[in-house]
Amino acid sequence: MKMKKGNHTGHVIIGGELLFYDAKAPYEKSGMSIRGALEYDAENDLVKCHECGEFFRQVGNHAAHAHKMNARQYKIRHGLLIGTALINESTRCAFIAEGIRRFKHNPQLLWDRMKKCRLSLTGRGEKHHRTAEDDNSKRLCDIQIIDRLRQATQQLGRPPTKSEMLEFGFNAKTARCHFGSLKALFRLAGIQGREGCKWENRTLLAFISNFIQKHGREPHQSDCDRGLIPSYAVYWRRFGSLRRGVTLARKRQFRACDLPTETRIRPVSAAKARASRQRFWGVNIGKFAIGGTRESA
């Protein structure tokens, strides 16, 4: 039996759980079905074959006879876990109940089965690798991440920051793991990414020179964390380390015109700030300030 074109079954099986189709949507297409999940017809208790799009009680037997591939090859081809059962729910529940009954009657049988499986996997040198079914269970496949980014952009009215991505269920590390970089993710989603701060080398060195001139000491990583100068990661990428940037800044003659106009704020020393009961602060919202004062709350 075949579903009408453009319709879906209403339910999916992911990681052994029966879920509503829309609970994990959208999905990546694989053959005539979706990647990393089994479409399940709850009304007729049938599972959809990825290769031909028809429904069967046991897809594994059908794939072996009709498509000339065993269950293992079928699962790898369509991003399923090796332990996923290619059968309908009623049959799976019956197998589970029968297994529980047998293991309760003979507990040694369970131990022997576990040891046999462990030796089998060790003999083949196999390890668990991330599959599309793993990603679908966390709603973190490629198309789902793109969908979340578009939703975040629509709600915020602008591209989300790294911290805002966490509120929508994914982070920058996950995006880099799937797409290689955040720029690639934004490009695939059709969204103009955040430009961020693109300082020239002379500007970065000018920040350090101005800091030394105003505060009488070299900047440390904690000063980067407070936003008094650009982040430590920027100096590490450009010069190898902040210490290397300080060495180059001392060799270069500092000119006030090298600093962006919006950052030329008159700084105060930490001692003066304490004396006047003011808090030493910096700006870290895309435009860095060398320093300033703000009344304590």
Kindly list the characteristics that best describe this protein:
two-stranded antiparallel sheet; about 300 residues; disordered C terminus; 3 domains; disordered N terminus; elongated; five-stranded antiparallel beta sheet; alpha+beta; about 10% strand; 9 strands
Give an overview of the whole structure:
- There is one protein chain.
- With 297 residues, this protein is an alpha+beta fold.
- The protein has 3 domains: 1-135, no CATH class; 140-189; 201-295, no CATH class.
- It contains 15 helices and 9 strands.
- It has a 5-stranded antiparallel β-sheet with strand order 2-1-5-6-7. The protein has a two-stranded antiparallel sheet with strand order 3-4.
- Helix 4 crosses helix 5 (107-124) and helix 7 crosses helix 10.
The average pLDDT is 79
Strand content: 5-15%
Instruction: Give the overall shape, derived from the CA principal axes.
Output: elongated
Largest sheet: 5 strands, antiparallel
Strand order of the largest sheet: 2-1-5-6-7
Number of domains: 3
Order of helices and strands: EEHEEEEEHHHHHHHHHHHHHHEE
> How many β strands by DSSP?
9
Poorly predicted runs: 1-6, 264-274, 276-297
Global structural class:
alpha+beta
- Contiguous helical run count: 15
Question: What would you call the quaternary organization?
Answer: single chain
Distance between the first and last residues' Cα: 70 Å
Percent in helix: 40-55%
| Global Rg | 29 Å
